[in-house]
Amino acid sequence: MIDHVTQAFLSDESLHGVMARLDLPPALHAYYGHRLVPRPFFLDRTTADTVAADIRAFYDLLTSLPDRLFDGSLARFADALGVPPEQVALMSAQRPALHGRADLYRVGDEFRLLELNSGSQLGNRDFGDISRATLEVPLFQGFAREHDLSYVHPVRELLRLTGSGTVAFLEAGGMLRKFEKGFASLQESCARLGVDVLLGELENISERNGHLYLDGTRLDAVVRFFSPRQAVGKADEFLKATKTEVCTPLENYLYGNKATLALLSLHRDRFEPDELALVDRLLPWTRYAADVPLDHLREHRETLILKASDEFAGTGVHAGWLLDDGQWRALLDDTRGAPYVVQERVRPTLDVVPGDERPWLTNWGWFVTEEGFAGLSIRSMPHESGAVVSFAGNPDTRVSGLLLHGNTPS
Description:
Helix content is 34%, strand content 25%. The protein is of the alpha+beta class. This is Glutathionylspermidine synthase pre-ATP-grasp-like domain-containing protein.
């Protein structure tokens, strides 16, 4: 069912040019301005909070897996995910606080989970400025007042983690340059919210007297965009730098690994009925690909999607329904034994875009923290363009802002 504010927007052609009138900040415009969905998206606040609460409860189930399945051993849990010991040595056995983005499809009035990205290394937070800019367009302001529209900025929620002092966003291995437009937009968004952040790479840090330093500047907080694999080369610095806050800790990585979803989906006998109801409400059937008989995988090609367990931005994702039998068989043979999960196909409700007769496929990116709903990113593309709605991985993907209506806290 179409949200009533969405229906009102689609029915008023005078509003359809709003996205072409956005006054976006320069870096955000340079990165996303040419790839905007020609409409904003809308959601009622109650749904935003309800789904966020489900995601928080789901995360609690994920973080209970070491205790439920491995007698509390983080090392055994990580080994089951294929994470090597030298990376686990940098992690704590304590439950990491929730800070993540759940990628979901809308199916009717419900939302189904594709993956849960856990940790600070998340893209799309700066989409909050698309929402802000939409509300500032004069032709849209009457509609916004009529429907009491507002937004939650994911960057503001991220900055709550860092506290005061000198903050750096750290990448590694040349990725800062590869994604320099995205980081410039994120840095710009932070500055607009009153926080100037440094950008750097892990290779350029050092440790002195318990603090991390970036090119000679002492850091009070680091927002982590690098992986545990990349951190191994700086293990001594991280273990000694107890006075610099790392947001988020490396153990968050374990709970964003797609193989964790397979563990949760497989071991249903370890959960209570209310917990299983939550899993069934959110998560499609998910398994380690190596644990599923090849005959089953081959026979159900059109209802399965194969995903590399520790990749991102759509890398290593293969939709069976977009391949023929021969291609699917070859893919299964090539990836057998590799770290892949297989998941049941989700058939989302498609969206309407003004001026385009094609149905659009939308990925709703729910940002969630321990406090609850922390904003939302929208990525969408024509349904005919494939199965992976990824800005970096699919050139047909467009982005937009999310506006809330209903009982929105100030």
